[in-house]
From TrEMBL:
It is found in: Mitochondrion inner membrane. This is Cytochrome c oxidase subunit 2. The gene is COX2. Residues 91-224 form the Cytochrome oxidase subunit II copper A binding domain. It comes from Spilopelia chinensis (Eastern spotted dove). Keywords: Copper, Electron transport, Magnesium, Membrane, Metal-binding, Mitochondrion, Mitochondrion inner membrane, Respiratory chain, Translocase, Transmembrane, Transmembrane helix, Transport.
Length: 227
């Protein structure tokens, strides 16, 4: 959950989000090194007198041609690795289907019989003390901790987007099309997200709440809800 005046990312709650944060830090250090070098060269050119060495310097031209290519490779390789990791879905323990509506979400646990429900935002007037305004829902998604979860995302009317920042998940919900992604929660907790695609007047009233619990608690919850 993000805090007020927070400049960084939310705490990672999945392996994918940990990789994304590490890549962000890596890219930021590369950008910092480039900016420092450019600032140093600009200062040097302003402070020093120009000499004939800068007029015909093939070695310098060779360096500033090869160096950017090396930098791009250093950024591209980890980026491609993370993209392949995000697309890889290998034998999930649980499959969940999310359907976007104006303006609420419907969920179906496809591995269970008749385990479906709608998830609406809790109005501010009905919000219990200590809960987050515009983020709390009447029915949370409950998933087992440390288990591969596949989520299939689609929409019933207009474009939506199912996004939970702390899990590193963001998938567009498109009418007539099924998109899928996966995540693994590394710790128990409650993780908040929102629809990230402008979908109409009440776009900001489509929160997403994922509750990660131990497997025994998830089995008790699913049994209770199915009965």
């Amino acid at each position: 959950m993000a805090n007020h005046s927070q400049f960084g990312f939310q705490d990672a709650s999945s392996p994918i989000m940990e990789e994304l944060i590490e890549f962000h830090d890596h890219a930021l250090m590369v950008a910092l090194a480039i900016c420092s070098l450019v600032l140093y060269l600009l200062t040097l050119m302003l402070m020093e007198k120009l000499s004939s060495n800068t007029v015909d310097a093939q070695e310098v031209e060779l360096i500033w041609t090869i160096l950017p290519a090396i930098v791009l490779i250093l950024l591209a390789l980890p980026s491609l690795q993370i993209l392949y990791m995000m697309d890889e879905i290998d034998e999930p323990d649980l499959t969940l289907k999310a359907i976007g509506h104006q303006w609420y979400w419907s969920y179906e646990y496809t591995d269970f019989m008749d385990l479906t429900f709608d998830s609406y935002m809790v109005p501010t007037t009905e919000l219990p003390p200590g809960h987050f305004r515009l983020l709390e829902v009447d029915h949370r998604i409950v998933v087992p901790m440390e288990s591969p979860i596949r989520i299939i995302v689609t929409a019933d009317d207009v474009l939506h987007s199912w996004a939970v920042p702390s899990l590193g998940v963001k998938t567009d919900a498109i009418p007539g099309r099924l998109n899928q992604t996966s995540f693994i929660t590394t710790r128990p907790g409650i993780f908040y997200g929102q629809c990230s695609e402008i979908c109409g007047a009440n776009h900001s009233y489509m929160p997403i709440v994922v509750e990660s619990t131990p497997l025994t608690h998830f089995e008790s919850w699913s049994t209770l809800l199915s009965s």
